[in-house]
Design brief:
Blueprint: H1 7-19, H2 23-29, H3 42-52, H4 54-63, H5 72-78, H6 90-100, H7 105-108, E1 109-112, E2 118-119, E3 123-130, E4 135-141, H8 145-163, H9 167-171, H10 174-188, H11 191-204, E5 216-218, E6 230-234, E7 238-240, H12 254-276, E8 278-280, E9 288-291, E10 296-298, E11 304-306, H13 309-323, H14 327-337, H15 346-358, H16 370-383, H17 391-409, H18 415-432, H19 436-471, H20 479-512, H21 516-543
Parallel strand pairs: 5-10
Antiparallel strand pairs: 1-3, 2-3, 3-4, 4-6, 7-9, 8-11, 9-10
Family: Belongs to the protein kinase superfamily. ADCK protein kinase family.
Pfam family, one: ABC1
Keywords: Kinase, Membrane, Transferase, Transmembrane, Transmembrane helix
Length: 547
C-alpha cells in the first residue's frame, strides 16, 4: 500500500539511500528484490538519517535510547544527532501563537523576542514577558509539522512491515520499534504531555532525604496559556552546565562547587530511578543548565521513563551484582527482567556474563565505567535472544548520559563514592520500607500465621501423599515414621517461630511503651517467650536429636 503513496517522497528517500551506499533499502523502496538486509555502518546510518530530515533524526534519537537492541557503536553515533534546523520566520510563528491563545497576543504578552532562542524539528522557543511581568519561555509547534510527521510515519511503517518479514527484522524488532517511534512522535506533537511530565517531575523532586530540593529547578508550567501546540513555562536564566564558569564564592572553591553539583545530580537521578520510578530520560549536557543564582535546572521533559517497583528492586540488585562481579546473579536478574517466552540456556548466559565481567576483576572500582557495563549486559542479553522491556534501553541511556556528563564536568569523580551511600539506603528501604515499625508488625503477623498453619499444611500434604500412594498400590517403608518425625519437626519449628514472634512483639511494645500497662504487657510477653524457649530446648535435649 505504501508503495502507491507519497511517490515523490519515496523517490527522494531512495536517492538519499543510494547516495549513501545502502542499496538494500533503495531496492526495497522501489519494489526490487529484497535480500537479507544488514545495517549500514554507524556513521553511514547517521548520515542517512540527517539527510532524510528532522523526522528521521527523531527516529535516530529514539534508536539511540535502545542499547538493548543496537550495539554500543550505533548508540554512540546516534547519540550525536541533534535537532539542528533553521527556525520558522516570526510572521508564521505569530499566526500560530495567536491561534492558540484565548486572548489577543497583546493582552497576554507585554514583550516577545522575535528571534528564536532554540529551534527543533517539532517546535521552537522564544523568550517573552507576560503582562504581569513574569519572564517566560514560549515553545511553539512548527506550522504544518503534523502533516509532515503523518507522511513520514506512513512510509516508516510501510518499510517496517516489509523488513519485519525477514530474520533481520525479527532480530531487531523492526515492527515493534516502528510502532514505538510512531507513538512517541505522535505524543510529542501534544505539548500538554510534556507539561504534565514536567509537573510530575517537579512534584517528585520537591522533597528529598538525599539532597536539597531548593538547589534543583524544573520550570513551572503556566497552564492558562498552554495548549497542545503551545507550551508556556517559566524562563530559567542560565547556561549549559559544561559551559559554566565557577569562581570562588563565599569561601567555596570551584572544585568544591563542582563536587556539590555532581553529588546533587547523582542523588536527584537516583531518586527518580529507584524511588520515584519516573525519570527524566534525556540528561545530556544541553538539558542541564547552571543558573545565575547558583541552582541547577533540568530542561526539556519531553522524554521520560517509567519503572515499576519490582523492576526498581531488580535493578538495584543488579548494581550490587556488578559491584560484586557476580555473573551468576546477573544472569538470574536478567531472566527476572525478561519478557520473552523463548527458552534460554542458563549455563551459556552465565558463561557470557562471566567472560564479560572477568576483565573488570583487577580494576579499582573507581575506574569502572558502570554505564558501559550495563550496555555490555544488554548486549549479552541480546546475543542470548533475551528480550528485555523497552524501558531498559531508556534506563541504560539515562545512566550513560548522567555518568558521561558527570565525568566531563568533574573529571575527579569517583562513581562508587557517589552511589555507595545511596545503594545502602536503597537496600534499607527495600528491607524495612519507609515505616520500619509497621513493617515489623506485619512480619510478626505473617510469622504468627505461618506458625499456626504450617503443621496443618504439612499434615494435609502427608495425608495426600499417603492416600495417593495407596491408590497407586505402592508401599513405601518407613513413611509413618517419617511423618511422625516431620510432625515433631514442624511443631518445634512452630514453637520457634512463636517464641520469635513473642520476643519481637515485646520489643516493639517496649520501645513504644508510655504507660505502666504497656510495660507490664511487654514483661509478660518476655516471660512467656522465655518459658516456651526453655521448654523447647529441654524437649530437644531429651529427644537426643540435638544434631
Amino acid at each position: 500500500m505504501f508503495l502507491t503513496q507519497n511517490t515523490s517522497r519515496q523517490r527522494e528517500i531512495a536517492e538519499i539511500l543510494f547516495r549513501n551506499g545502502w542499496d538494500y533499502m533503495r531496492r526495497l523502496l522501489t519494489g526490487g528484490k529484497t535480500d537479507e538486509p544488514q545495517l549500514p555502518t554507524p556513521a553511514v546510518l547517521r548520515k542517512i538519517l540527517v539527510d532524510l530530515g528532522p523526522v528521521y533524526v527523531k527516529f535516530g534519537q529514539l534508536m539511540s535510547t535502545r542499547p538493548d537492541l543496537l550495539p554500543a557503536s550505533y548508540i554512540d553515533e546516534l547519540s550525536t544527532l541533534q535537532d539542528d534546523v533553521p527556525p520558522v520566520p516570526w510572521a508564521e510563528i505569530e499566526v500560530a501563537i495567536r491561534q492558540q491563545l484565548k486572548k489577543p497576543l497583546e493582552e497576554t504578552f507585554s514583550k516577545i523576542n522575535f528571534q528564536a532562542v532554540a529551534a527543533g524539528s517539532i517546535g521552537q522557543i522564544h523568550r517573552a514577558t507576560l503582562t504581569d511581568g513574569r519572564e517566560v519561555a514560549i515553545k511553539v509547534q512548527r506550522p504544518g509539522i503534523d502533516a509532515i510527521v503523518a507522511q513520514d510515519i506512513s512510509l516508516i511503517q510501510g518499510v517496517a512491515d516489509l523488513v519485519a518479514r525477514s530474520e533481520f527484522g525479527q532480530n531487531y524488532e523492526i515492527k515493534s520499534l516502528a510502532n514505538e517511534f510512531t507513538s512517541a512522535l505522535e505524543a510529542e506533537l501534544d505539548f500538554t504531555r510534556e507539561a504534565h511530565f514536567a509537573e510530575q517531575l517537579r512534584r517528585n523532586l520537591s522533597a528529598s532525604k538525599w539532597f536539597d530540593p531548593q538547589q534543583l529547578v524544573i520550570a513551572e508550567i503556566f497552564w492558562d496559556f498552554t495548549t497542545e501546540k503551545l507550551l508556556v513555562m517559566e524562563w530559567l536564566d542560565g547556561v549549559p552546565l559544561l559551559s559554566a564558569n565557577f569562581a570562588e564564592n563565599n569561601g567555596v572553591s570551584p572544585e568544591t562547587k563542582r563536587q556539590e553539583i555532581t553529588t546533587l545530580l547523582f542523588r536527584a537521578f537516583f531518586q527518580q530511578l529507584y524511588i520515584d520510578g519516573f525519570f527524566h530520560a534525556d540528561p545530556h549536557p544541553g538539558n542541564i543548565f547552571y543558573l545565575k543564582d547558583g541552582r541547577v535546572a533540568l530542561l526539556d521533559c519531553g522524554m521520560v521513563g517509567k519503572l515499576d517497583p519490582r523492576t526498581q528492586q531488580i535493578l538495584v540488585e543488579m548494581l550490587l551484582a556488578i559491584v560484586d562481579i557476580d555473573a551468576q546473579r546477573c544472569s538470574q536478574l536478567t531472566l527476572q527482567l525478561s519478557d520473552s517466552a523463548q527458552p534460554v540456556i542458563l549455563s551459556r548466559l552465565e558463561n557470557d556474563y562471566d567472560r564479560m565481567l572477568r576483565k573488570y576483576y583487577n580494576l579499582d572500582l573507581s575506574q569502572i565505567n558502570f554505564s558501559q557495563i550495563i550496555y555490555e549486559l544488554l548486549q549479552v542479553a541480546r546475543n542470548n535472544k533475551i528480550r528485555l522491556p523497552s524501558n531498559m534501553g531508556l534506563y541504560a541511556k539515562t545512566l550513560a548520559n548522567l555518568e558521561g556528563l558527570a565525568r566531563q564536568f568533574n573529571p575527579e569523580i569517583n562513581f562508587l563514592d557517589e552511589v555507595k551511600p545511596l545503594l545502602t539506603d536503597l537496600f534499607r528501604r527495600q528491607l524495612l520500607g519507609d515505616r520500619p515499625v509497621e513493617s515489623l508488625l506485619r512480619t510478626a503477623l505473617d510469622l504468627k500465621s505461618l506458625s499456626l498453619q504450617s503443621p496443618r499444611q504439612i499434615e494435609l500434604l502427608l495425608d495426600r501423599v499417603t492416600s495417593e500412594t495407596l491408590q497407586w498400590n505402592l508401599s513405601i517403608r518407613g513413611l509413618d515414621s517419617i511423618r511422625r518425625t516431620l510432625d515433631d519437626s514442624a511443631n518445634r519449628l512452630s514453637f520457634s517461630v512463636l517464641v520469635g514472634s513473642l520476643i519481637m512483639g515485646a520489643a516493639i511494645i517496649s520501645s513504644k511503651a508510655q504507660t505502666a500497662q504497656l510495660s507490664w504487657l511487654s514483661s509478660v510477653l518476655f516471660a512467656v517467650a522465655s518459658l516456651l524457649g526453655l521448654w523447647l530446648i529441654f524437649s530437644i535435649l531429651r529427644s537426643g536429636r540435638l544434631r
